[in-house]
Amino acid sequence: MDMSINHDELEAMSGLLHIQQLAYLRGIRPYMDVKTRITGIKRRISYQSISEQLYIEPHQGIKSQNFSRDQVRRAVYGLVRAGLIEVQSEGMQLILKCLLASTDYSVRNKAAINPPQKATTKSHEELIENIRFSEDETLKADIANTQKAAIPLIKDNYIYLLQRFDHFWLMYPEKKSRERAFEIFQKINPDEHLLQTMLQALDSQIKSRKTKEAHGEWVPAWKFPANWLSQKCWEDEIRIELKPEKRNEKCRTSTGTAHDPFWNPEAEDSASTGEDEYQQDNVVSMQRYRQAD
Known about the structure:
Blueprint: H1 7-13, H2 18-28, E1 32-33, E2 38-39, H3 47-53, H4 69-82, E3 85-89, E4 95-98, H5 104-108, H6 124-150, H7 154-171, H8 178-188, H9 192-214, H10 225-230, H11 265-292
C-alpha cells in the first residue's frame, strides 16, 4: 500500500524521539483509512502490533531490540501532544485519528505532471469554453464536499458508542461475551442521558448486592452483560429487605430458681409431719421411763 507523507506531518515530527517517529511511520500511518484519516477500524491496531513493527532484528554488529507496550503507549501519547494524532478509543480496540494526514480526495486532486504533448493551436473560443467548464466543475466539487461534510459519519458514531460501552463494561461485575454485549449496546444506541441512567442503576444494584451479602443473605449470580442490556435491567426496582438476625437462646443464663421435676410439696409436708410425731412419741416415752425409776 502506497503512503504519502505531507509537509505538515514532517514538520510536526521534527525533533521528536525516534521511537515516536517510527511508531507513527511504521505502526500507525500505513494502516490509516485515507477517506476518514482514522486508523484502527478497517485494519485493527494495538500497542502490541505497533511494538512488533518497531522490532529490530539482530544483524552483524547490531543487537536485537524490543519495545515494551508501555514504551509504545508513551510514544503514542507523545504523538498526541505533538498534534499528529488523536486517541478516540483504547478500550475494546485502539482507534487513532491522524489529524495532519492528507485525505484521499485531496491527494487525487493534486496537480499531476503530465507527459509532454504535441503543441496544438486552439482558438480563442475554445479556450474560453474550457475555462468555463473548469470553473463549473470546481463549483460542483465544492458543493459536493460541503454536503458531505454536513452529514456525520457512521464510523464516528461507532467510535462514540464504543467509548460509552467501555464505561459500562468497566463497571459491570460479570465480564463475559463482550462482543455480544456490544452488539446489544449498539441496538440500544444510548445517548448521554440514558447512559448515565444505566450506570447509576448498575451502581445501585452493585451496592444493594454487597449490603445483602454483608448480612449473610443469598443473592443470585450476575446476568451476562448481553442479557442485562437486552432485558433493560437498569429499569428494575431495587428493594433491600434485611431479615432480622436470630438470637442464640442457648447462651441465655436463667435467673429463675431451679425446679426439680420429681419434687412433690404434699409428700414433703406429710414427711415432715410424720417426723414431728415421731419426735413427740420419743419425748413421751422418756418421761414414762423416768417416772418408772
